[in-house]
Write a structure and sequence with these properties.
- By secondary structure, the chain is an alpha/beta fold.
- It folds into three domains: 2-46, no CATH class; 64-145, Immunoglobulin-like (Sandwich); 160-357, no CATH class.
- It has helices at 2-18, 25-46, 160-171, 196-207, 210-225, 235-265, 279-288, 304-317, 329-352; strands at residues 64-72, 82-87, 93-97, 103-109, 112-119, 126-132, 137-139, 143-145, 175-176, 180-181, 185-186, 271-272, 292-294, 300-302.
- Strands 1, 4, 7 and 8 form a four-stranded mixed β-sheet that branches. Strands 3-2-5-6 form a four-stranded antiparallel β-sheet, with no helix packed on it.
- α4 packs antiparallel against α6, α5 crosses α6 and α6 packs antiparallel against α8 (304-317).
């Protein structure tokens, strides 16, 4: 373009020479170079910058054009695909997108080796390369995109519910002296919270265990031998009534205090064996376990489930105990306090004695490394 301006300037100069005798010849001669340079400079300012070698420079290679199309594996055009053209030295690049017909084009591309990177949503990136010669219009073979491979991460391991189920199954094997059920103590160092279903499952298996039926029978026999609840009378009928009342107390206390309320209040009904630390710390821990418990969120909190469970069981017993043996409101709360004390005593036995009498525990002693 500059050369064409120089030719134009030379023509103007010859015209000026031919009219040398005209008025103002000297002025034209002095202004001609300036007038010729101004349009060229203005043209240079209006022209956009072109990446790659500058055009018009002596011996500079002419830029070329790269175009092509983007398709999928079925041959359908892919509109909106991003195409990045990178020069061989990685210093120059251009970007564009494929049109509605899948076509793309790059203009003013510096000659030499180039690489195309084609990406589109849902497709794997594709690479294409070629060599562009000076002034060439290079047509890239159609770029066929493939559907991106979906990567699925599989984590091998047990969920928290599955871990808790394993711990419940382990607890159901815990039997003092090998036969007395002891399901509500956890020796696991990392106990998982129980689901409501697991809490009810543990309560059900406790109340229908054959040993539980036998122990209730012993309690009813002791009550009859001491003529407790005399309103029931003696003989087989009196024993059956005492047995039924004792079993009803056992079932209501277990389900209310260890399943229903823990499910509603999201509390764990189990005692968590400490087994480490000083004897004093273990004693305080066991006693505290009668009024505090671990929530399903892992935090310690007041043991509303056990306290309200004892009160509820005492209130329900008024439905089937002889009238003269029924507790009033005061006696119900007194029985609740006695229940808290009994729980503290049971926790002390769990902490210092029961474990030694329980063979074949599924987990090692947490005190051991």
């Amino acid at each position: 373009m500059i050369l064409s301006k120089e030719v134009s300037c030379r023509k103007s100069f010859r015209n000026v020479q031919s009219s040398f005798l005209c008025y103002g010849t000297l002025i034209w001669l002095s202004l001609t170079p300036l007038l010729c340079a101004l349009p060229a400079r203005a043209q240079a300012q209006e022209s956009p910058a072109v990446e790659g070698p500058q055009r018009g420079l002596p011996n500079a290679p002419l830029p070329g054009t790269v175009n092509g199309s983007v398709l999928d594996r079925t041959g359908a055009v892919v509109a909106g695909a991003r195409i990045k053209l990178t020069h061989k030295d990685q210093s120059l690049f251009q970007e564009t997108a494929s049109g509605a017909d899948g076509q793309f084009s790059f203009a003013n591309v510096a000659p030499g080796l180039f690489q195309l990177t084609v990406t589109a949503e849902g497709f794997a990136a594709q690479l294409s390369s070629g060599t562009l010669h000076p002034g060439e219009i290079f047509t890239v073979p159609p770029v066929a995109l493939t559907v991106a491979t979906a990567l699925t991460e599989v984590r091998v391991g047990l969920s928290q519910v599955e871990v808790a189920q394993e711990q419940v199954e382990d607890a159901e094997k815990q039997r003092v002296l090998g036969f007395i059920p002891n399901f509500y103590v956890s020796y696991d160092k990392h106990p998982a919270p129980l689901t409501s279903k697991q809490k009810f499952e543990l309560a059900w298996k406790t109340t229908v265990d054959p040993v539980s039926f036998a122990l209730i029978g012993v309690i009813a026999g002791i009550q009859q031998s001491q003529d407790q609840f005399s309103g029931y009378g003696q003989g087989a009928e009196g024993y059956a009534k005492r047995y039924g009342a004792s079993y009803a107390n056992f079932v209501s206390g277990t389900f209310i205090g260890s399943a229903i309320l823990p499910s509603l209040l999201k509390q764990d009904p189990r005692y968590f064996y400490k087994g480490t630390g000083s004897k004093r710390s273990r004693i305080l821990y066991a006693i505290a376990g009668s009024v505090v418990c671990k929530g399903d969120n892992g935090h310690w909190q007041p043991n509303y489930s056990s306290i309200l469970g004892n009160l509820a069981a005492g209130a329900i017993s008024n439905l089937y105990y002889p009238e003269k043996d029924r507790d009033g409101v005061g006696l119900t709360f007194e029985s609740g306090a006695i229940g808290i004390g009994a729980t503290a005593g049971a926790n002390l036995i769990q902490e210092f004695l029961i474990r030694k009498l329980t063979p074949n525990l599924p987990h090692d002693d947490p005190a051991k490394p």
